[in-house]
Structure formats: structure tokens, C-alpha cells
UniProtKB/TrEMBL annotation:
GO terms for molecular function: protein serine/threonine kinase activity. SUPFAM superfamilies: ATPase domain of HSP90 chaperone/DNA topoisomerase II/histidine kinase. Residues 17-122 form the Histidine kinase/HSP90-like ATPase domain. Pfam families: HATPase_c_2. It comes from the Bacteria. Keywords: Kinase, Serine/threonine-protein kinase, Transferase. This is Histidine kinase/HSP90-like ATPase domain-containing protein.
Length: 133
């Protein structure tokens, strides 16, 4: 297993830092389409933390033989604010696609409380041909 984590709190561009960490960590371990999906999920989770909780505290990425787990933590306490089945935004909505994309791309995802707030966890399993090993 490979583990990568960065502190995002106070960064001017936390989504950019998260995307860079994911790409660096997955370099040489997965094909570009899978990496792009993981980057998009990480970007959306960090963006949601910033938008709805005021800041993302940190992100970690664990790479396993079967896929990856992404965790983004914020200091928000309301886990019910994260819908379990996000609705699709219509073409005129300016937002609302983030968790819908996470729901479509992730094999599983959810939210849980922790001692500093809450964390949203997304699991992306490798599909046939994803792993470059």
C-alpha cells in the first residue's frame, strides 16, 4: 500500500494541491483515464469542503492492489449535509454536479464524523485495464 497525505488548511489553492498530490502518487501505477477519475473525485471533494464547510483540512490517498481510497476532511459537523444520493443538476444549474460526479465515478463513498469534524471517503476500484502493473 502507498499512502500520501497533505494538509490543505490555509492553502490558497487547495484543489490544485490535491490534484497534484493525486497525480504524483498515481504516476506509473494506473492508466491515465483512471487517474483522471481519481483526480476529479479528489477535486470535487475538496471543492465541496471549501464551499460548504469553509475549508478543507486535509486529504489523504491510499493506493491498494484493488484501487484507491480518498479521504477529505473538513471541520463541519453536520454529516447529514452530505446527501447519500445526490440529484443530477439540470443544464441551467450553476453548481450541484460535484457529489453527483463522485457518486457516478466512485465504486462507493460516504461521510463519517471524526474528532476534528467530518470526512468524506471515496473508494475507486480498478477496472479491467486500469492498473499498469
Amino acid at each position: 500500500m502507498t499512502h500520501a497525505a497533505i494538509d490543505l488548511y490555509g492553502l490558497e489553492a487547495p484543489q490544485s494541491a490535491a490534484r497534484h498530490m493525486v497525480r504524483t502518487t498515481l504516476a506509473g501505477t494506473a492508466d491515465s483515464e483512471y487517474t483522471d477519475d481519481v483526480v476529479l473525485v479528489a477535486d470535487e471533494l475538496v471543492g465541496n469542503a471549501v464551499e460548504h464547510a469553509g475549508a478543507a483540512l486535509d486529504i489523504c490517498l491510499d493506493v491498494y492492489d484493488w484501487g484507491v481510497a480518498i479521504q477529505v476532511r473538513d471541520d463541519g459537523e453536520d454529516t447529514t449535509a452530505v446527501p447519500g444520493a445526490p440529484p443530477a443538476a439540470d443544464e441551467y444549474d450553476e453548481g450541484g454536479r460535484g457529489l453527483f460526479l463522485v457518486d457516478v465515478l466512485a465504486s462507493a463513498w460516504g461521510v463519517q464524523r471524526d474528532k476534528k469534524g467530518k470526512r468524506v471517503i471515496a473508494i475507486l476500484l480498478y477496472r479491467a485495464g486500469d492498473a499498469d502493473r
